[in-house]
Amino acid sequence: MTVKPNILKVAVSVAIIGAAMVGVHFFNAAQNRTAVAVPKEALPTGRVKFAPNAPQLSSLKIVTATEAPLPASDSLNGRIAYDENVTARVTSPVAGRVVALHAEIGDKVSRGAVMANIDSPDLASAEADWRKAQADELRKKLAFERAKILLDGEVLARKDYESAETDYQQAKAETKRAALRMRNLHANGKEDGQFGLAAPISGIVADKQINPGQEVRPDLPNPLFIVTDLTRLWVIVDVPERIAIDIHPGQTVAFETDAYADRPFSATVDRVGLVLDPVTRRIQVRCLVKNIDLKLKPEMFARVSFLAGDGGRKAIPLPNTSFFAEGMYSYVFVEKQAGIFEKRRVNMAVRGHERSFVDAGLTKGERVVTEGAFLLNAEAAGDAQ
To answer: Which of 132, 264, 306, 350 is deepest in the core (most CB within 10 A)?
Structure first.
């Protein structure tokens, strides 16, 4: 009598388990039918699509393609230098000791302005020689005038007259020599031995290698002052001979510096060297730069591109982060619509250090991904699988 209830309980449990298994089976079937009914959107090969709020979009940077003159060559290394036509390196023409300074780096000076005072025994000696020569000239001039009067009165021999005239001419020559020496020293003849080191041109004091109490002399290896016009600079480039034949004065030049990586500068070719360096096999080219805002500094390094000119070919400059390579070819991603990107093969006509120029595969006005191209390429490869 006690067995029948147990059999009943077992039968009920088996029925419940069977119903659960049937329910799971139908649930999975329904899920599979749903997945089949809503397939993933198929995209053409090389295209990537993101939802409007996809987090991947925040890591992309997109710019509109613009055209620019195609450079005649790859970027070349150059350096910024003083324009020597408006630069003076000032040294002391006499030996002495610095007693006062009147100019510092960055000061504007006018031509003839005294930048330093030097106590110089050499100058004192030159001043004494000049005064002595003046006095000797005056004495011999009076002697010559007396001899002329005596000759006219027939009381002096002609040879004595001629001797007095010769002495006077020699004294005049010595006075002139001493005066020229004083003028070359830019000395004022105050007989105090103080020499004023003056600026030979107007400009800005770009460098100073002089201090109070310093001993100076004419043969120092470095100039005491460099005075220049910093609004005018040169860019010096050593150009390979295969490129030099296409460079001419007046040609437009574009260059970049490490200090201002995002700002391009322009210059104009001024001179092309006539002699090839036998060691480097390069020709030096000098370009003129207008540095009105004084951003550029002498001795900065520059990456220089010689442009083909306004009538030359046009190309699209892009940062090098825009490109990725597959095999022998280069590619970029172009935004076709909001959130939709297309992989595009391009031709890089000129490769630069920071940017390169595309002459095929893109058109002006298209929106190009400049940061995040590798992410898009990974997404495209995942979709293809």
So the answer is: 306
